[in-house]
Amino acid sequence: MSFYDEITSIDIASYAKEVDSKTESEVFKAICRARNDEKLDLGDFMALISPKAKPYIKEMASLAHKYTRMRFGNGVSMYVPLYLTNLCTNNCKYCGFACHNKFSRRVLNAEEVELECLAINKMGYENILVVTGESEKRGGMDYFREMIPIVQKHASYLSMEVQPLDTEDYAELKTLGLDAVMVYQETYHPGCYKENHLSGKKTDMRYRMETPERLGDAGIDKVGIGALLGLYDWKADIIALARHLEYMRKHYWQTRMSLSFPRLRPAAGGFEPQYPVGDLEMIQIVCAWRLFDHQLEISISTRENQRFRDAIVPIAITAISAGSCTSPGGYAVNRADDLPQFIINDDRSVAEVTEALKQNGLEPIFRESRSSIVKQVA
Ligand code: SF4
Known about the structure:
Layout: H1 3-7, H2 13-20, H3 24-35, H4 42-48, H5 57-72, E1 75-85, H6 110-122, E2 127-132, H7 136-139, H8 141-152, E3 157-161, H9 167-175, E4 180-182, H10 190-196, H11 205-209, H12 211-217, E5 222-226, H13 234-251, E6 256-260, H14 279-292, E7 297-300, H15 306-316, E8 319-321, H16 350-359, E9 363-365
Parallel strand pairs: 1-2, 1-8, 1-9, 2-3, 3-4, 4-5, 5-6, 6-7, 7-8
Helix pairs in contact: 2-13, 3-4, 4-14, 5-14, 6-8, 14-15
The structure holds iron/sulfur cluster.
C-alpha cells in the first residue's frame, strides 16, 4: 500500500479537528516527554501544534534549540537554487511560472548553464539546487542528461526540484551525480489539490505523492518532502506531512529525509493565500517538528523575511538559501525585469546572511557532502 492509498483513505480535515481538541494536560505530557528526551508520537506532535500549546512556545523553542545543536552542531548548510528554465506546462494557481501567465520563457543552453555555475561558485556556493518548471519536451530527461553533468562539475552536493520522474530516470540521474530530490506535495487534501492544480501533469496527485517512494527505490541519498502552507488548513496538512515522514522513515529507513513547509507568498495573477499562517504559529510548527524528530533536516527559503529567518534559524533550521534568483540565467546576467516564480522576502546578499549567522554563533557550510551535515555531537 503506497502512502497515497493510506492518506486518501482518511478525510484529513479530521486532523485539524483533532489538533484543536488537544487539552492542556496532553500538551503538558508532550512537553514533559520532550524535556526528558523521550520519543514523541503523533498525538504528542498534534498537542504541540495545538492552540493550547501557545503558552509553551518559549520552552519549546529552548528545547528545539538544544536538540538542534546536539544533533547538528553549529553548522547551517547554505544552498542556492539554480533555475535552468521557467518554462512550465502546468497551471498551478499560486505560481508565477504557471503556463497561463504571459511572459517570455527561457531555457538555458549548455553554455549558459556553465556561466550560471561559475557565477554561483563565485558567490561561494557548491551546494546547488537545480530548479525547473515542469516541461517534458524542453525540460525533461534529454535536457537533464545534458545539463546535470555540467552542474555536477561545479557542485559538491547536487539536488533537484523538478517535475516528478520515473524510478529508472532517478537511478540514471544518480549515476550522473544527483544526490537529492525535493518534491513537495503542496497540499494533501485531494479537493484542495484539484482546485489549485488546474491543468498539466501535476494534476495527477497520486503520481506526485508516490514520488518519494520512487526516489527511495532508486537509492537517492536524500529526499525532501513538504507542504505549501496556506493552500489548505495548515493543521491538517502538517499532520498529513508528519504521517508522510513516518511512512518514509518506516519503508525507506536508509534514505535521509528533509522537510520544507514554506508559507505561500502572493504571486503573479493576483493569487493570495486562503489560509495564512502567522509568525508565532510558524515558530510553533518549526519547534514542534524539532521536538518530534531530532534528526530531521529542515530548510527555510527566502520566501520568509529577514527578521523571521534570523530568529528561527538558530532554533531549528539546518539549511537555508541566500542571494537567490528565480530567473534562469539571473546569476550571470541581471534579469531584474523577469516575472519571478514567487516574491522573495529576504533579499540580503550572501555576505549579509553569512554575517547574521555568525553573529548568532552559527557556521555557514557552503560545501556539503553526503554525510557532512549531520554531526552526531551527542
Ligand atoms: S509550481 Fe511548479 S509546476 Fe506549478 S506552475 Fe509553478 S513551476 Fe509549474
